[in-house]
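INFO worker-7 received task bundle
INFO bundle size: 2
INFO processing item 0
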Amino acid sequence: ASLVAVPLGILIGISPIAYKAFNPYVQLLKPVSPLAWLPLGLYIFRDSELTGVFIIFISSIWPTLTNTAFGVANVNPEYLDVSKTLGASRLRTIFKIIIPAALPNIVSGLRISMGIAWLVIVAAEMLLGTGLGYFIWNEWNNLYIPNILVAIFIIGIVGLILDNIFGAIERFVAFGRQA
C-alpha cells in the first residue's frame, strides 16, 4: 500500500487537478470497513492469501495517502520559490525539497497505516482461515482460553515493537520538532 500511497499522495499534493480528480474517490472509499471488501476480494482473487493481502492493502492505503498529500500540499512556499530561483527542475524539486519537507507527514501516515494493517490482518485471518487470526478462532472453538491470551499478548507485543520503530523514524525525520 505504501508503494502506491506515497507516489499518489505526492501527485495529489503537488497538483490541484489531481487533487480534484482523486479526492472524491478517496473520500468515498476511505470510510468503507476493510471487512466489507472481503467478499469482493474472495470473488476476484479466489484465493484466501491474496484476498488477505488485498484487504490489508485497501485498509492501510488511506492514512499514508492522505498524510502524504497533506504534507506535500503544505510545503513552505518559500522553499519552492528558492528552488525556482535556483533553476531546479520539477523532478529535482520533488526529490530535494518536497519529499524531505513532507517526510514527517509521510512517516506519520505510514505509522498509522501500519497500525491499521496490524489490526486488520488478525480479523481477516479469522475469516479466511489462515495465520494467527485463525489460530485464535480455532482455540476459541476448542475453548482453550490460555492460548488465546498468549496470542493476544504476542499480537500486542509485535504491534508495540512496530509502533516504536515507526515512532523512532518519525522522531528522526521531524527536523527538530518533537514527534
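INFO item 0 finished
INFO processing item 1
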Amino acid sequence: HTLTFEPQILCLNDLILDVIDEFTALAEAADLSLVDQIQVNRPLKVLADEDQLYRLLSNLVVNAIRYTPA
C-alpha cells in the first residue's frame, strides 16, 4: 500500500477543531474533556497532506483518550 502525498496549504486551527469535534463524545464517554487553546485570531497555516495530517492528529487524540485516566 503506497501513501500518496498531496500537500496543500491548510489552516491547522481548523483541522484541530475538526478532530476535537469528532472525538468529543469518545472523550466524554471516558470521563474526559477535550479542550482547545487555539487563538482563533491567529490562524496557523501549514503545507501538508490534509488526510494524513488528520489521521495523525486523530491517532494522537484517540491514544490520549485511551491512556489518560478519568
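INFO item 1 finished
INFO post-check item 1: DSSP finds two helices and two strands in the chain.
INFO post-check item 1: Residues 3 and 52 are 9 Å apart (CA to CA).
INFO worker-7 idle
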